[in-house]
Amino acid sequence: MSEMTSATPQLLRRVSAGAVLDFMRASQAVTVTEVMDATGLTRATAISVCEDLMDRGWIRELENQRAFGGYQKGRPARRFELNERAGYVLGMDVGVAKATVVVSDLRGKALGRSSQPFAGAEISAEERIAVIDSTAIKALHSVGASPDSVLAVCAGIAAPVDRNGDVLVTQHFWGLFDVGLKAALQELHGWTVLLENDANLAALGDRWRGAAAGVDDVVVILASERLGSGVIDGGRLLHGRGGGAGELAFLDMVDGVGDTFGIATMARQWAAEAVAGKARTSLREYAREGAEAEQVFAAAAAGDAVAAKILDRLADRMARVIGAVATIINPELVVIGGAVANSAGVLLEPIAERLKEFTATPPRVAVSPLGDSIVTVGAVRCALDYVEKNSLDLELMP
Predict the structure, then answer these.
(1) CA 392, 55, 6: angle at the middle one, nearest 5?
(2) What element of type H or E holds 200?
């Protein structure tokens, strides 16, 4: 009984510190009175907790300023704010062709970014780790941050990852990403590394700062080269037993779809088929190197009938994909994400018109404003979630 009694003040202080820090993260500069109102702490406790958090580096006290130089009776109120540069988090997007790393402060503001290609898809694990590590160090150097200041890292990969951060390796392609990244970066820098599927991170990122902000039931489909989805149900990210929730391999069996190739891939393929024929189209000027998706969308916007037909086929295909997803999962919203989202807005109306043909529960459909940053935004959010959950156990650099 004595141990429980002696531990109680320490536990209460920890809970109070967590509440104050959470309030600071959601606010700008705050006074002690505002801390009291938000947390229910007494003035003495609020001041003591703020001073402790300040000593530990999580918050800072602002210089007192009297309003516009006018007379103010008594001492001015003490003001505190989150020290957003107390440490940094890294958000990584590790694809088959390149690695991209974003450095963020503790408010989620992206400060620096670096991207480097891999020498090939079949490079060794050591080579892949070396490129990822080099990219991360370049990103840190771009903002004058040291590796020791990194509090957490989240890396998104194009393979299923379970709740424990283990890669599901039942296909050769997924195995390319099972390179021991967590252990390698821990050994190199002492970093805590969280591993997650890229589409799952896209869902977290878009729900944080995209079209799905505030939506609890949403599917985000990465739709550029290949189709993959992240599912948030009731505000909770779904993984499934082995991390396979959201995988779209079943599209091989969906009439009018038949595979998991994305919008960019199909736009290129159908443009090449059109150019190989006798159709009159402005896409012929790209015959040598092949028309990219952006060029197909631009040609359609300029009135090219062949390009417009390709967009119509894309809309029909995506309506079938979204209809199948909506029938299985029944989300409120489906978001089309990835680099192709910058152009895919023109597909929304025809997709919406056709959805009722393919599902009895048609969702709203939107495109993400995050473009090709959607995975790194979600990775930053995931790393911040870890830091915010474990703040009081983390030691900051002096």
Answers:
(1) 55
(2) helix 198-209
Question: Where in the chain are the domains?
Answer: 2-82, 88-205+375-393, 212-369
- Residues 48-63 have pLDDT tens digits of 999 999 999 999 999 8
Q: What is the DSSP code string of 40-82? A: ---HHHHHHHHHHHHHHTSEEEEPP--GGG----SPPPPEEEE
Strand 150-157 vs strand 88-94: parallel, antiparallel, or unpaired? Answer: parallel
- Which of helix, strand or coil describes residue 134? helix
- DSSP assignment string, 150-165: EEEEEEEESS-B-TTS
pLDDT digits (tens, 9 = 90+) for 280-321: 999 999 888 899 999 999 999 999 999 999 999 999 999 999
Does domain 88-205+375-393 correspond to CATH entry 3.50.50.60?
Answer: no
212-369 adopts what CATH topology?
A: Nucleotidyltransferase; domain 5 (3.30.420)
Fold of 2-82: Arc Repressor Mutant, subunit A (1.10.10)
Q: Tell me the Ramachandran region of residue 383: left when phi exceeds 0, alpha when psi lies from -120 to 50, beta otherwise.
A: alpha
pTM across the whole model: 0.92
